[in-house]
Amino acid sequence: AVGATGAGAGAGADAVKPKKKKEKLSALCKTPPSIVRTRTGRDYRRGTFLGEGGFARCFQMKDDSGQIYAAKTVAKASIKNEKTKTKLLSEIKIHKSLKHANIVNFIDCFEDDINVYILLEICPNQSLMELLKTRKRISEPEVRYFMVQIVGAIKYLHSRRVIHRDLKLGNIFFDPEMNLKIGDFGLASVLPSTDSRKYTICGTPNYIAPEVLGGKNTGHSFEVDIWAIGIMMYALLIGKPPFQAKDVQVIYERIKKTEYYFPEDKVISDSAKDLIKDLLSLNPLNRPTIDDILNYEWFKGPFPDKTHELSLHTTPIGLQ
Ligand code: ADP
Q1: Which of 52, 73, 117 to mutate to test the pocket of ligand 1 (most atoms within 8 A of CB)?
Q2: What is residue 111's three-state secondary structure?
Q3: How far, in Å, from the CA of 270 to the mean position of ligand 1?
Q4: Can 305 be counted among the known catalytic residues?
Q5: How high is the pLDDT of residue 18?
Q6: pLDDT exceeding 90 applies to what percent of the chain?
Q7: Average pLDDT over residues 262-270
Q8: End-to-end distance of the chain based on CA atoms, in angstroms?
Q9: What does DSSP assign to residue 216?
Q10: pTM metric for this prediction
Q11: Cβ distance 118 to 106 under 8 Å?
């Protein structure tokens, strides 16, 4: 799901997309034909609707061998201006260059008269956002297991100078084996050098780092993803993001002052709090780097051997 500044805060863990944008999207994005033929002559059979973000709609697609994929479809009518076109091309270029066990695999990209199709590895078990909505809070061993996978993928991204810039529960999907996969590279950016900075304000309200909001215009870098890891870890363990409020401006004011607390009735370990506090450091330079995170005490605690599909609905036995 795409992030947008100025979007409503929403009641769930992720921000609600602006209503106007959504109406426009469904008006522009007609359901693709039942068979999509690529210019190179391959046929894909369209299946069920999987979901939509601010920019794209996603459908199941089957190739001739019966292999199922997810096709992110973007209506050509919605990419008329140069800025949108550049953004989509950048998403494709960055995503195409990535290959990691915990990143949604990019398979192919093609177009017909109506849409551009981005064919992706299918993640049929939704995202961490739906998991949290169903389960309300997630146990520490499970979150630890999720975090190792997420940190591994971001370590890979940062080593290639890619900043994701829209990390949030709704952009981290479960594959058929219940492994986590980071998706949606719509706001990702490749830094030309490790010490260069980005200046565009972007992200999703609950997850935006303070230096992106700050008026000093000093730019931002890899540390915005580290901040977002802190937001996700807090949200999974406590049940809602730390700066949650109805009004987006209130969220931003809280972020700028790192005004959050650990509710007394939702007990979590001191070592979890220590890690969250460091991840959510106001000064980006005080946050751990992606290489530091797994050395924290909290990761010495227990892990489940894998995530089972049953965990989508109920807390695993022994972890209640
Ligand atoms: P946008 O860039 O418009 O935000 P997303 O990449 O977030 O688009 O995709 C929109 C929705 O499509 C997601 O919220 C999810 O429901 C679904 N989706 C995206 N990628 C996949 C995938 N690989 N497998 C299954 N569903 C997906």
Answers
A1: 52
A2: strand
A3: 35
A4: no
A5: 38
A6: 70
A7: 97
A8: 30
A9: T
A10: 0.90
A11: yes
Dump the DSSP string for 23-68. Answer: HHHHHH-PPPPSEEE-TTS-EEEEEEEEEE-SS-EEEEEE-TT--E
**Parallel, antiparallel or unpaired: strands 115-121 and 106-111:** antiparallel
Burial of 112 (0-12, 13-18, 19+ CB in 10 A): middle
pLDDT of residue 302: 94
Pick from 275, 6, 33, 283: nearest CA to 143: 275
Please state, in angstroms and rounded to a whole number, the distance separating the CA atoms of residues 2 and 51. 12
Beta carbon of 184 within 6 Å of any ligand 1 atom = yes
* 17 Cβ inside 6 Å of ligand 1: no
Instruction: Tell me the residue length of the chain.
Output: 320
**pLDDT tens per residue across span 12-71:** 444 433 344 445 555 566 788 888 888 888 899 999 999 988 888 999 999 999 999 999
Cα 143 to ligand 1 centre (Å): 22
Q: Which position among 14, 166, 184, 225 bears the catalytic label?
A: 166
Q: In angstroms, rounded to a whole number, what is the distance separating the alpha carbons of residues 128 and 234? A: 13
Enter the ipTM. 0.95
The reported pLDDT for the residue numbered 5 is: 39
